[in-house]
Amino acid sequence: MNIKKLLNPDWYELRARMGRRAVIGIPFIWLLVFFLIPFAIVLKISFAYTEIAIPPYSSLFDYADEALTIVLNLGNYLWLADDPLYISAYMGSVEIAFIGTVWCLLVGYPMAYAMAKAPKNWQSALLMAVLLPSWTSFLIRIYAWMGILRNNGLLNNLLMWLGVIDEPLVILNTNVAVYIGIVYAYLPFMVLPLYSNLVKMDKSLIEAAQDLGAKPFECFYKITLPLSMSGIIAGSMLVFIPAVGEVVIPQLLGGPETLMIGKILWQEFFNNRDWPVASALAIVMLLVLLIPIMIFNHSRQKDLEGRS
Amino acid sequence: MINRKLSFSNVMLFFGLVFLYLPMFILVIYSFNASKLVTVWAGFSTKWYVELFRDDQLIDSVLTSLNIGVTAATAAVILGTMSAYLLNRFGHFRGRTLFSSMITAPLVMPDVIIGLAMLLMFVSMASTLGWPEDRGMLTIWIAHVTFCTAYTTVVISSRLREMDVSIEEAAMDLGASPVKTFFVVTLPTISPSLISAWLLSFTLSLDDLVIASFVSGPGSTTLPMVVFSSVRLGVSPKVNALATLIILCVSLAAFIAWWFARRSDRAQRDAYRMLGRDQ
């Protein structure tokens, strides 16, 4: 037994309890102050009036003559609902993120499948090869496509040289470029959860199905695909949620037709300096993403705590 | 290709990897182009690299970014270790669900929302508490520590979960206090994951444009902010040269992180084999 514990049980217990509290308390308070409370403040400011002041919004609470008045300005939300620009930006974001996610899945699933079936000593290196680009600067990777997709860029030069086209294709500053950017930037986030799901799969199930006469496609459709559903969900959420709020891709690769809410929020904040409207935009974006985020958190927490 | 079988999925894997790497190779090649016109090849030259080192604004932003990256990654690893430890070893405590939600939310939360929320909080704090007086390095650092902690917690947590708890229990049975057990037994076992978590946070912090743009002040410009403002003007060989250097440094860091993670996997497998438990 611990000698200190025997000599002075109270002191030891107290210290253990204090230590436990500190380990819980420090990260807890940090996240509370710097992550949770900020969202409450965004909610608060979304109900404020825009003012030409520092900071550029009105105060919600006013205490004068022993009366507390709370002024909630719903105008920002009505403004969003009124202006078709914002509504189509939300629709556009969801649509672009959705199509981008489907493309990621179509490209990423076969990749993850091939990685999971590769020889064991190859797998670690292949995983590294897929993940390495996602560590490299996001901005730089999007920038690389600007040079390729331009009217006089590499792709058009190549296609004209091959004689496939006579006139350069306009790809940069269209939605096609945005899709390419999303697939390129988020592909590793799709492949990783799919791979870790597929690699754990029990191969004897497939063998059993084959023994019983199932064709390869039938095997895949009836066994592999349903069993990898949790990987598909995790990967799709990892792509869809950040893609809805994407700022850099629509600004660099997209054009005027690319209406995405992240870009609008950015402009509202930095160009118009309308903080309350930007806050209202962020709150509505959060509401749009609430269900996907909850699905993701649910699957993630199971993972984090080792339950399955 | 790999299976010596030309199946559909192997072909897709091959083209997927080409798709991931080709744009970066092109970027690297064109950074050595002598011509100012990006599409015309005019011979090999390193003049754009020389020009990079003459750009004082750029060098300043690199130093700012490195400074924030190193300190934020260190703090995020400390907070992440605590969070991972309490999620894996403390059982139930009050607010556990809230805590694990707060840990996982930044992983997927769009950057614009995190950036805006952080900025508005700093502004509110400044007007009510008088702190932070102005925005700059400190506010970027706090923001980066917060979102990097989510990633470090995930990385360290997965290692902590794989670790054999009985070693910790043995140490405590032999009279080590929980603190001593942590530093003598737990910490050395999970140290490879701490290194990869640190490198991951470091690259995330170096790469962040959106959050830093929201919470930075007039005096502090990070590297991605400089890159973004020049990229918006179009493609230029100087940015290509800068991009090449960034790709080189980050790949190196990522490779080291991967190597440490892999080595720890192998060490663990060997340990299991020695115990006669083949896993």
Automatic annotation (TrEMBL), chain A:
GO biological processes: transmembrane transport
Transmembrane residue ranges: 21-41, 87-113, 125-146, 176-198, 219-244, 275-297
Top-level taxon of origin: Bacteria
Matching Gene3D superfamilies: MetI-like
Residue ranges annotated for the ABC transmembrane type-1 domain, each copy included: 90-296
Keyword Acyltransferase part of the UniProt annotation: no
Record membrane topology: Multi-pass membrane protein
GO cellular component: plasma membrane
CDD domains for the chain: TM_PBP2
Keyword annotations of the record: Cell membrane, Membrane, Transmembrane, Transmembrane helix, Transport
Protein name: Putrescine transport system permease protein PotH
Gene source species: Parendozoicomonas haliclonae
Subcellular location: Cell membrane
Similarity comment: Belongs to the binding-protein-dependent transport system permease family. CysTW subfamily.
UniProt-listed Pfam families: BPD_transp_1 (PF00528)
TrEMBL record, chain B:
SUPFAM superfamilies: MetI-like
Bilayer-crossing regions: 12-32, 66-87, 107-126, 138-160, 181-200, 241-261
Domain of life: Bacteria
UniProt subcellular location: Cell membrane
Membrane topology: Multi-pass membrane protein
GO CC terms of this entry: plasma membrane
GO biological process: transmembrane transport
Residue intervals of the ABC transmembrane type-1 domain: 62-257
Name of this protein: Inner membrane ABC transporter permease protein YdcV
Organism of origin: Parendozoicomonas haliclonae
Gene that encodes the chain: ydcV_2
